[in-house]
Amino acid sequence: MKFQLTEDQRALRVGVRQLLTRRFEGEALRAAVAAPGLDRGLWRELGVAGFFGLRLPEADGGVGLGLPEAVLAFEETGRALLPGPLVATHLAAGKVAGAAAGEAVVAAVDGGGLVEWLAEADVVRGDAAGAVPLRSVDPLTPLHRVRDSGAAVDPVAVLLTAAEQLGTAGRVCELAVQHARTREQFGQPIGAFQAIKHLCAGMLVRAEVARAAVYAAAVTADRADIAAARLLADEAAVRGARDCLQVHGGMGFTWESEVHLHLKRAWVRAQRGGGVTESEELLAADLVA
């Protein structure tokens, strides 16, 4: 059995990264932080590129690909810190008019009673009555709290969240290594110091272990595999971003740096669907059975 990406899958990943690099990197990211709001033009561009309709059958106007391809695309959005209810809109393709084309922004009440981007949404899936705004730690993810309906968490939503966390884990590892190579103290790059080497090595190991789990879960689509992937990806993203901040020192907390934004986004994603507890309970039940 071959586990390497196919040529088409690699091309998809490159295409999504190029689109996001062109439309949402550097100055665009900082502008979004300074003036939060959803870029409807970029949202429609994602729709035209087939991002939201990636798993929708071609007969229904979609791209006709599968869960592994969706995971690769969402990994790139996590890497780029792209804001918006991406998972909810992707899952609504074919069910909500305009979602696949990026003409409609869809928010959803998750299993933990949180709603992202409620005020910007054209359609809300789930009961958002009585929603109360929260002060989000992430400036690019506005949140509302609603009554927890106790509804089951969609395993595909969990996996796509894990893919976004994987994107953050990979990106913060890159940022830490880049900084360790160029920042000098005592006449040498800080990457020469053992403590920094250990931090970077730990970040890489966690990211690659999470990558294997997320990609495998995308192939099996098994709920227990998805739960395990979510736990590993959450840890890789949160711990990786924290360790990346340590490598950067005080510079990592400044607004011109994206490191602290990755940490804040990872914290918010980790609360989706009731947080890690849901995945822990599901995985524990599977192991006991």
Brief digest:
This protein has 289 residues and is mainly alpha-helical. It has helices spanning 7-23, 27-34, 40-48, 67-80, 86-92, 155-182, 194-220, 223-248, 259-269, 276-288, and strands at residues 106-108, 114-116, 123-125, 132-134, 143-145, 184-185, 188-189. The strands form three sheets. It has a three-stranded antiparallel sheet, with no helix packed on it.
List the helices and strands and how they pair.
Elements: H1 7-23, H2 27-34, H3 40-48, H4 67-80, H5 86-92, E1 106-108, E2 114-116, E3 123-125, E4 132-134, E5 143-145, H6 155-182, E6 184-185, E7 188-189, H7 194-220, H8 223-248, H9 259-269, H10 276-288
Parallel strand pairs: 1-3
Antiparallel strand pairs: 2-5, 4-5, 6-7
